[in-house]
Write a structure and sequence with these properties.
The chain starts with a strand and ends with a helix. The chain has helices at 12-21, 51-61, 75-80, 82-103, 134-149, 173-181, 199-212, 227-237, 268-273, 280-286; strands spanning 3-7, 26-31, 42-45, 65-68, 107-112, 154-158, 161-162, 186-189, 193-194, 197-198, 215-218, 225-226, 245-248. By secondary structure, the protein is an alpha/beta fold. Helix content is 39%, strand content 17%. The chain has ten helices and 13 strands.
């Protein structure tokens, strides 16, 4: 089996990716601060911001392909820790693209729908980026830097993701479910729209992109929902009372990072390649 290096195996998406990819690849996964054990996968502690360490991993493992999912992905953290997050989100990403170019191997990178300002959705791949927060800005810089170093990179813009809790990461639905179970109030935005997919679907999309895409691809779902709509659907599927779900607006909540209103992705290019997200209701039922 060919060797696949997954940077960020301890993250939510990285963990789901390991589950799917191990059927076809010999997987080497990296983590930094959250040790994880995944049956059948070799896990290595790597500081991706240390170029020598990164180069050493490439030289030792000799991967046939790389999927880079590691990131500081909380917009509020990036807003308040711009230098620390830049080292991972930009510098390490560009270095990984450079090493993939040196070795002429496929490379896929997880970017975000937050590279857009939310004013002209739905967005397709050739729409201009215009991030409103530092996280989106860092991902936009990484996209351009990686493609400059290695035009063969598959830059995958990911939507909001949800799914089963992993040993080291939750998705945003776990706190939602707990809050509703406890009968507490849950304030959800009616003016923030995304095209969510499950971690499983996103993992399948990344493997497809690794094989078939050079350049930018959108891996959003087929439905555009507000956070509020998502919460109501979640309550319905999990048979929880929706009486605690309250509508609010972005301006009602004080956050370090500004949020775009509507970053729905047009992913028809990926659908044409065989990317097939299920409906959100189906995805939630499977959970």
């Amino acid at each position: 089996m060919k060797r696949l290096l997954i940077a960020g195996a301890s993250g939510f998406l990285g963990w789901h990716l390991c589950q799917f990819a191990k059927q076809e690849w010999e997987i080497y996964g990296t983590y930094l601060s959250h040790p994880v054990e995944i049956p059948g996968i070799k896990i290595l502690k790597v500081n991706l911001t240390d170029f020598q360490e990164l180069q050493q991993i490439f030289n030792t493992i000799k991967p046939a392909a790389v999927i880079h999912t590691a990131a500081h992905s909380q917009p509020n953290f990036c807003q308040t820790h711009p230098e620390e997050s830049h080292a991972v989100n930009v510098t390490a990403s560009c270095n990984i693209a450079g090493l993939c170019a040196d070795n002429s191997i496929p490379c896929a990178f997880t970017s975000t729908d937050l590279v857009f300002d939310g004013l002209n959705a739905p967005y397709c791949e050739n729409d201009s980026v215009c991030p409103v927060n530092i996280y989106g800005e860092q991902k936009a810089i990484a996209e351009a830097g990686m493609l400059e170093r290695y035009p063969m990179t598959a830059v995958c813009r990911m939507p909001l993701m949800f799914g089963a809790e992993t040993p080291t990461a939750k998705s945003f639905i776990q706190p939602f479910i707990q809050t509703l179970k406890d009968g507490k109030g849950l304030n959800l935005f009616i003016d923030e729209f995304r095209t969510p997919v499950s971690g499983k679907t996103a993992a399948k999309g990344l493997l497809l992109a690794l094989e078939k895409v050079n350049g930018i691809i959108h891996l959003g779902g087929k439905e555009r929902l507000s956070r509020y709509d998502f919460g109501v659907l979640l309550a319905e599927v999990f048979e929880l009372s929706a009486s605690g779900i309250k509508a609010c607006r972005q301006q009602d909540v004080k956050m370090a990072a500004p949020r775009p209103a509507d970053v729905s992705l047009d992913s028809s290019k990926a659908f044409a390649l065989g990317y097939q997200p299920l409906s959100i209701k189906e995805e939630l039922r499977m959970l």
